[in-house]
């Protein structure tokens, strides 16, 4: 009985620690110089995508950062049990 309680507690602790996952991955690279400008654009989804809002497009991120020549594009994703997902497109360039 005690082992079962300890096992449950360990599983719940592991689940709680892994509940929010954040990843960043490269998406695209061009031959344009990286430059000093950075633009970010985000979108959010709730309940596995039933409710969606925002614009995480490359164009929106470039516009936000005042970038006319895109050098790199990264995508950051925050995922909390697929209940809340936030995707942010990060663009660098000139």
What would you say this structure looks like, in words?
- This protein has about 90 residues and is of the alpha+beta class.
- It has one domain.
- The chain contains 2 helices and 5 strands; from the N terminus they run αβββαββ.
- It has a 5-stranded antiparallel beta sheet with strand order 1-4-5-2-3.
- The model has no long low-confidence stretch (mean pLDDT about 85).
Keywords:
94 residues, alpha+beta, five-stranded antiparallel sheet, 2 helices, 26% helix
Number of domains: 1
Mean pLDDT: 87
**How many helices?**
2
Largest sheet features: 5 strands, antiparallel
Strand content: over 45%
Low-confidence stretches: none
Classify the helix fraction into a percent range: 25-40%
Strand tally is: 5
Instruction: Write the element-wise H/E pattern from the N-terminal end onward.
Output: HEEEHEE
Q: Briefly note the structural class of the backbone.
A: alpha+beta
Strand arrangement, major sheet? 1-4-5-2-3
What is the 3D shape?
Answer: elongated
Q: How far do the termini sit from each other? A: 63 Å
Q: Radius of gyration, rounded? A: 19 Å
Compose a concise summary of this entry.
This protein is of the alpha+beta class and 94 residues long. It contains two helices and five strands.
How are the elements arranged and paired?
Elements: H1 2-17, E1 20-29, E2 37-46, E3 51-54, H2 58-65, E4 70-80, E5 84-93
Antiparallel strand pairs: 1-4, 2-3, 2-5, 4-5
